[in-house]
Design a protein that fits this description.
Blueprint: H1 5-33, H2 35-43, H3 48-62, H4 65-78, H5 83-96, H6 98-109, H7 114-124, H8 133-158, H9 170-173, H10 180-197, H11 200-212, H12 218-239, H13 245-267, H14 269-283, H15 298-320, H16 324-334, H17 358-388, H18 394-423, H19 429-464, H20 471-495, H21 505-531, H22 536-564, H23 569-578
Length: about 575
């Protein structure tokens, strides 16, 4: 036996270079794709077939089905896509992940790509110093591509040769003679290998090297591929542990979908592999079966394994496509909803895409803005709860405000993207004005959400530093909050009316009352400060609440102006001068 511990360390190092190259390649591609990748995932999931194409494309770009599925789980958790929409993307990701196997098989075993890989690094390395970020990201991906294949070459050279080290394979051979039990065993090996590498693409590449070097035969390699299909679902399930019920369902669907696929493949594995062998012999000029791993046929065996990987995943999608609704029901049964805790915070009206006409699409967007205003009112109630509810509930209110502020960011982004898509059509002047007004509304409502969150952080700081305002100051904040609530209610009432039919007189009066109360409370603040009724720090925090609440009033007034479709600065002055 000639294989030493130092040789083993070289093998581990080679594997590290390969996985690092794959990570750099994947990260670089994702940076090149930029926000377009997320836009594709969010915008092309309206049907299951579109979702499959989207999942395939995204995984081909990222070179990692794990990245795609974890991204999908995060989108479902944020409410950007539904659990049902995510199923198509997950199925497409299963097919997309097979592209890496083909790339490794063709470039890594059928041709000597190492000189090309080194040359590629030489060509793109200077781009790392370019001023444009796009060129640096492109260089990063190409350098990662080169490192990947250099690592693969190192792995091939570091793997012990069977002829020189026969003792090393006695142990491995002892597990391959149990027929179907051996297949099950190596499915487990493939699953564990994927968990250890945290990448099904890396695990697949290792399996291809083991097959090429003659460590394992073709059926055992196929079993490991099946195990890697199961292992790739684990990372998404781990990511979903901290997500809501819809994110958990997306991850569970991926696991169950792949488990069902592996189950039916086990029933037909032998004839299926024979069919793959026949296809390979038909299309390749070299004679010999992939089941007979002589030196000449090993490279062809890696191609056959890639063909098995792709064919299995494509057939799995085709066979289970019609059964997806049943799998969804099963997943919903085992992963039950927890009512309010995991309610699906997502768009309710525009998730299906544009309507048959621009006017209908604008109407759908208007409904989403009504939902947005309702969410802002909930944030207002939560902030009131911080000051006027029992102390043991304050942590719950802080968490609600934080969660809802994140939702307001998502809503603004999604509605803005939808409105932009509507704008691409030939619109009337009236429709164009409405869309611009809606952009203004969602921007102001999102800013209101931000301000409530900022005030909740100020309250949290007061708790941490054991700062409390006098009861009189708390009561004054409550009075100002009542006026703000009146403004929110008026926004919701006006949103229920048709655009252009809104009477802004009441909005102007409420805004003036908010400004007047802000001025009065500032005067009382200075009096308390002069009398030493509270510290300077307490006074600063009180003023912070006043200015932020008044700013909320300004944003809400802007929303009312946008609903009415006109600016009323001159009318504002006239009403102020005439009085209520």
């Amino acid at each position: 036996m000639t294989y030493t511990f130092f040789d083993f360390l070289q093998l581990i190092g080679s594997l590290g270079i390969f996985i690092y190259g794959m990570k750099v390649f994947s990260d670089g591609l994702q940076k090149v794709a930029g926000s377009r990748l997320r836009s594709i995932l969010k915008g092309m999931t309206t049907t299951r077939m579109k979702g499959i194409l989207t999942g395939f494309g995204a995984t081909t770009i990222t070179q990692s089905s794990t990245t795609t599925t974890v991204m999908v789980v995060s989108f479902v958790n944020a409410g950007l896509i539904t659990f049902i929409e995510s199923t198509g993307v997950i199925m497409g990701a299963n097919i997309g992940t097979t592209v890496t196997a083909w790339m490794v098989s063709i470039f890594g075993f059928k041709m000597n790509i190492t000189p090309i890989a080194v040359s590629l690094i030489g060509i793109f390395f200077p781009f790392m110093f370019f001023g444009k970020e796009k060129y640096r990201h492109l260089a990063e991906s190409m350098i990662g591509f080169g490192i990947l294949f250099i690592g693969l070459e190192f792995i091939k050279n570091a793997v012990p040769d069977i002829q020189d080290n026969p003792e090393m394979f006695v142990f491995l051979d002892s597990f391959t003679g149990f027929g179907f039990a051996s297949i099950l065993l190596f499915i487990g090996v493939g699953t564990i290998l994927t968990l250890l590498t945290q990448s099904s693409s890396a695990a697949t590449a290792i399996t291809l090297v083991m097959l090429f070097q003659g460590w394992i035969d073709f059926p055992i390699a196929a079993a490991m591929i099946l195990g890697e299909n199961i292992g790739t679902t684990i990372t998404a399930n781990i990511a979903a542990l901290i997500g809501n019920v819809h994110a958990k369902r997306a991850a569970r669907f991926h696991l169950i979908f792949n488990l069902v696929g592996v189950t039916w493949m086990l029933m037909v594995l032998t004839p299926f592999l024979v069919g793959i062998d026949n296809v390979m012999q038909f299309f390749l000029s070299e004679p010999g079966s992939v089941f007979d791993l002589d030196q000449a046929s090993r490279a062809n065996a890696t191609l056959a394994l890639s063909l098995f990987h792709t064919t299995f995943n494509v057939f799995n999608v085709i066979l289970l496509f019609a059964l997806v609704p049943r799998i969804i029901k099963f997943v919903e049964h085992i992963q039950t909803d927890k009512k309010d805790m995991d309610s699906p915070f997502r768009l309710k009206y525009i998730s299906a895409g544009l309507m048959s006409s621009s006017e209908l699409s604008i109407a759908q967007a208007h409904k989403e803005i009504e939902q947005f205003a309702r969410l802002i009112e909930k944030m207002h109630f939560s902030f009131e709860g911080l000051f006027f509810k029992k102390q043991k509930k304050q942590e719950k209110f802080l968490e609600k405000i934080k969660k809802r502020e994140q939702i307001t960011d998502n809503i603004e982004l999604e509605v803005a993207e939808y409105l932009t898509r509507i704008s691409s059509f030939n619109l009337s002047e009236y429709a164009t004005r409405r869309i611009r007004a809606m952009h203004s509304m969602i921007n102001d409502l999102e800013r209101v959400g931000d301000i409530y969150f900022q005030m909740s952080k100020t309250f949290e700081q007061m708790q941490t530093e054991d700062i409390s305002l006098p009861q009189e100051a708390v009561r004054e904040i409550g009075e100002l909050l009542d006026l703000i609530h009146n403004a929110i209610q008026l926004v919701r009432e006006n949103l229920d009316k048709s655009n252009g039919q809104v009477n802004l007189d009441r909005a102007i009066l409420i805004e003036q009352k908010i400004d007047d109360m802000r001025d009065q409370l500032k005067e009382k603040h200075y009096q308390r400060l002069e009398k030493g009724e509270y510290s300077t720090k307490e006074g600063v925090m009180f003023l912070d609440y006043l200015s932020r609440l008044e700013k909320i009033g300004d944003h809400l007034f802007n929303v009312n102006e946008a609903i009415a479709g006109r600016k009323v600065k001159s009318a504002y002055r006239e009403v102020i001068e005439s009085g209520p």
